[in-house]
Amino acid sequence: MATLFDNHGRKLSYLRMAVTDRCNLRCFYCMPEEGIRYLPKKDLLTNQEILRLVGILSGFGISKVRLTGGEPFVRPDIMPLIRSLVEIPGIRDVHLTTNGVLTAPHIAELSKLNIAGVNLSLDTLDRDRFRAITHRDEFQNVMRTLHALLESSIPVKINAVVMDGKNTDEIISLVELGRNNPVDIRFIEEMPFNGEGSHYNRLEWTHVRILDHIRAHYPGLAKIHDPEFATASGYRVPGFAGTLGVIAAFSRTFCGTCNRIRVTAQGTLKTCLYDAGVLDVRALLRQSADDALVSDRLLQAFLSRPKDGFEAEASRQSNPVSESMSTIGG
Ligand code: SAM
Ligand code: SF4
């Protein structure tokens, strides 16, 4: 298997693929309440195009793929896509990130397909607050998915965005989910990808503050070994079945080992979450049936990666970070 390194010597092995920009929730930190202007369906990559792209990337040594969005399960042909993805030689791990609204009925099959993990987004354990954050009354469906996942053999992570004034009083209740359940609860710094631009002057709840808050409740909190390329810094409360992690997504402390590339819902390659998109892969796939040409253009982009998220953000010039995370996939 080939191994691909970028221009800073970082190994690239992980693709995050946004399979749609559409979503059945309106989390305020991701999308305006009135939604975003969705792409015409013809502008989304087809299953065939995604599979071709992943096939090419697997030849470069990409072995882990995460399907995200938008909400992957609002894409009508998501299950056929997953069934084919797990068959691609070289793709060892297929993961999903989902809001859980439509996911529960698919969990038995996902388990049979040996999905390597599901990240479920859950910022609150309170139904009214869930509705206030997401502008939809879907909390019970999400909890149904959580329970079905915990009963399955699929490894589960919970993604909780920490929002100043909205859910910080629930950080400890979310940590408590790990007391008896083997879940990894990850607290993510809020980023300005909400379809409108930043709504805060400075981030109050940084990874440092989140961790201090948790440690104040659990003085025995112990650091655990983080897997290679992890973005979360992991911890365990002694006696808990699960673990927790804090992701410095806004502070960007993990860029030095970043192994990931992203393809947005419109088929644009991003070699950093904070760049504005570096290659129109959709156009390339549609213009040329020649995989060698596509590979060549991808390689050029991998060898021009910004050093970190700050350099990538600075390179956007007059185009500040404000797009919706639902087009990027997180
Ligand atoms: N719809 C799916 C979901 O919510 O899990 C997948 C797409 S969503 C964009 C992927 C992840 O990005 C979710 O865990 C979500 O909480 C996170 N996210 C979205 N907007 C964010 C923001 N502004 N800051 C931090 N995380 C964000
Ligand atoms: Fe939808 Fe996920 Fe964005 Fe929430 S975070 S609006 S669930 S894409």
Descriptive overview:
This protein is α/β, with parallel strands linked by helices and 330 residues long. The chain has one domain (4-328): Alpha-Beta Barrel (TIM Barrel), CATH 3.20.20.70. Helices cover 30% and strands 18% of the residues. It has 11 helices and 14 strands. It has helices at residues 47-59, 78-85, 107-112, 127-134, 139-151, 171-180, 207-217, 281-287, 291-302, 309-314, 325-328; strands at 4-5, 11-12, 14-18, 64-68, 93-98, 117-121, 156-162, 184-189, 222-223, 232-236, 243-247, 260-263, 268-270, 279-280. A 12-stranded mixed β-sheet has the order 9-10-11-8-7-6-5-4-3-12-13-14. Strands 1-2 form a two-stranded antiparallel sheet. A hairpin with a 6-residue loop joins β10 and β11. α1 (47-59) runs parallel beside α2 (78-85). It is globular and about 55 Å long. Iron/sulfur cluster binds at residues 23, 25-27, 30-31, 69-71, 99, 121, 325-326.
The distinct bound ligands, ions and cofactors come out as: S-adenosylmethionine, iron/sulfur cluster
- CATH-level-2 architecture: Alpha-Beta Barrel
Helical amount: 25-40%
Q: What is the CATH T-level topology?
A: TIM Barrel
Number of domains: 1
Strands in their spatial order, largest beta sheet: 9-10-11-8-7-6-5-4-3-12-13-14
* Mean pLDDT over all positions: 94
Terminus-to-terminus distance: 28 Å
Taking the sheet with the most strands, its summary is: 12 strands, mixed
Helical stretch tally: 11
* Rg (CA only): 19 Å
Helix and strand content put the structural class at alpha/beta
Q: Which CATH top level class fits?
A: Alpha Beta
| Low-confidence blocks of residues | none
Order of helices and strands: EEEHEHEHEHHEHEHEEEEEEHHHH
